[in-house]
C-alpha cells in the first residue's frame, strides 16, 4: 500500500500509529495493495477553510474525506482494484478537544477519525440509521482489530 502521512499542523502526532492503522484498515477491507491513500493533518484555520469550501459549514471540523477513484471495499477473493483511494484530512486540535470530552487520548481520537474518514472514502455514510449502524459497526471492528494487533505486536 502506498500510504502517505503528512503533518502540516503544529501538533506532534504519532504518524507511525496512523500509518499502521491505515494499513490494518485497508487490509481488513480487502483494498488492493497498490491503492494509494493520503492522510493530512492540518491546523484549525486550514480545516475551517476546507470545511467552508467543501461543506459550506463554518468553523473547523475533525475530519474531511476527499475520495478520488470511488473505490469500494473488496472481499478476500476479489480485492478492490488498485487506484487512488483519496485523502483523509484531520485536525488534531479539534480531535484533542473531542478526546477530552470522550475521556480518551488524542491519539485514540485521531485513530477513530482516520478510520471514519477512510470508510467515507470507500463509500460508507451515516445519513440514515441503517447506514450509521453498518458504518459504525465496521469502524468499531477495525479499531478493535487494530488494538488487538498492536497488543500482539508489543
Automatic annotation (TrEMBL):
<keyword id="KW-0255">Endonuclease</keyword>
<feature type="binding site">
    <location>
        <position position="120"/>
    </location>
    <ligand>
        <name>Zn(2+)</name>
    </ligand>
</feature>
<dbReference type="InterPro" id="IPR002036">
    <property type="entry name" value="YbeY"/>
</dbReference>
<feature type="binding site">
    <location>
        <position position="126"/>
    </location>
    <ligand>
        <name>Zn(2+)</name>
    </ligand>
</feature>
<dbReference type="Pfam" id="PF02130">
    <property type="entry name" value="YbeY"/>
</dbReference>
<dbReference type="InterPro" id="IPR020549">
    <property type="entry name" value="YbeY_CS"/>
</dbReference>
<keyword id="KW-0862">Zinc</keyword>
<feature type="binding site">
    <location>
        <position position="116"/>
    </location>
    <ligand>
        <name>Zn(2+)</name>
    </ligand>
</feature>
<keyword id="KW-0690">Ribosome biogenesis</keyword>
<keyword id="KW-0479">Metal-binding</keyword>
<keyword id="KW-0698">rRNA processing</keyword>
<comment type="function">
    <text>Single strand-specific metallo-endoribonuclease involved in late-stage 70S ribosome quality control and in maturation of the 3' terminus of the 16S rRNA.</text>
</comment>
<keyword id="KW-0378">Hydrolase</keyword>
<keyword id="KW-0963">Cytoplasm</keyword>
<keyword id="KW-0540">Nuclease</keyword>
<dbReference type="InterPro" id="IPR023091">
    <property type="entry name" value="MetalPrtase_cat_dom_sf_prd"/>
</dbReference>
<comment type="similarity">
    <text>Belongs to the endoribonuclease YbeY family.</text>
</comment>
<protein>
    <recommendedName>
        <fullName>Endoribonuclease YbeY</fullName>
        <ecNumber>3.1.-.-</ecNumber>
    </recommendedName>
</protein>
